[in-house]
From TrEMBL:
This is ABC transporter ATP-binding protein. Keywords: ATP-binding, Nucleotide-binding, Transport. Pfam families: ABC_tran, BCA_ABC_TP_C. InterPro entries: AAA+_ATPase (IPR003593), ABC_AA/LPS_Transport (IPR051120), ABC_transporter-like_ATP-bd (IPR003439), BCA_ABC_TP_C (IPR032823), P-loop_NTPase (IPR027417). Gene3D superfamilies: P-loop containing nucleotide triphosphate hydrolases. Residues 4-252 form the ABC transporter domain. One of its GO terms (molecular function) is ATP binding. SUPFAM superfamilies: P-loop containing nucleoside triphosphate hydrolases. The keyword Lyase does not apply. SMART domains: AAA.
Length: 266
């Protein structure tokens, strides 16, 4: 059963069409990759799914709920969360406080109740701290709970972003270049975490990623964008040998060379 359905998604910025008539379905419980050269429209595609941009044309549905026109916080409440290509943490807040930000949509406390520190507010905050610490344990950052986020290593900051995204209790998690800047050890830890989230938390995952080794290893389905259009989709083995994909990444001459040598984009 599909958890996400996208039909005819299009976004224009003035005379530039960043995403053009893209269709995509994501199966519940799957790991899907969206790949393509720089400027292919991948992040714009994510921004439309999460409400940062409103599509000029097209439909987006999570299960049977239409998302076009909803604000980002409302889409988060529906069950979609994300990380960003450029890490967006509150650097001077602690690691635990950063995770607790993710609980905002699920807290019932009012501003007045918080101001007066009413008993039910204190209880809710204590529960959020407890759950936040549990998420830090899950991503391997519990020992840093009281550190400022800016003091974490790059790979740890990436995992902190994921923990904050998990705090929103998503059904669908979008990861925008999660392995960017990571060393091999950090990438391996990230790969293991993605598998665990899918298996243990029942989270469906869609990622944008330039690390083709990671993409081919972890993805069950791949969608390829180029100049805003979908040029291919399928299983990793199909994408690896696709003429359009090879040409988009390496140029037309590479297609001829690839056919002569039997090579692929991996």
């Amino acid at each position: 059963m599909n958890i996400l359905t996208v039909k005819g998604l299009t976004k224009r910025f003035g005379g530039l069409t960043a995403v053009k008539d893209v269709d995509m379905t994501v199966k519940r419980g799957s790991i899907t990759a969206v790949i393509g050269p720089n400027g292919a429209g991948k992040t714009t595609f994510f921004n439309m799914i999460t409400g940062v941009y409103k599509p000029d044309e097209g439909e987006i549905s999570l299960d049977t709920h239409g998302l076009v026109g909803l604000k980002p916080h409302d889409i988060s409440k529906c069950g979609i969360s994300r990380t960003f290509q450029n890490i967006r943490l509150f650097n001077e807040m602690t690691v635990l406080e950063n995770v607790m930000v993710g609980f905002h949509n699920h807290l019932k406390s009012t501003f007045l109740g918080t101001l007066l520190a009413l008993p039910h507010v204190r209880k809710e905050e204590a529960n959020a701290k407890k759950e936040g610490y549990r998420l830090l344990e899950y991503v391997g950052l519990a020992e840093f709970f009281n550190e400022e986020a800016q003091n974490l290593s790059y790979g740890a900051q990436r995992r902190l972003e994921i923990a904050r995204a998990l705090a929103t209790k998503p059904k669908l998690l979008l990861l925008d270049e999660p392995a960017a800047g990571m060393n091999p050890k950090e990438t391996k830890e990230l790969t293991d975490l993605i598998y665990r989230m899918r298996e243990e938390l029942d989270v469906t995952i869609v990622l944008i990623e330039h690390d083709m080794k990671l993409v081919m290893q972890i993805s069950e389905h791949i969608v390829v964008l180029d100049h805003g259009e979908k040029i291919a989709e399928g299983k990793p083995v199909e994408i690896r040998n696709n003429r359009n994909v090879i040409e988009a990444y390496l140029g037309k001459s590479a297609v001829v060379a690839n056919e002569g040598r039997g090579q692929n984009v991996n």
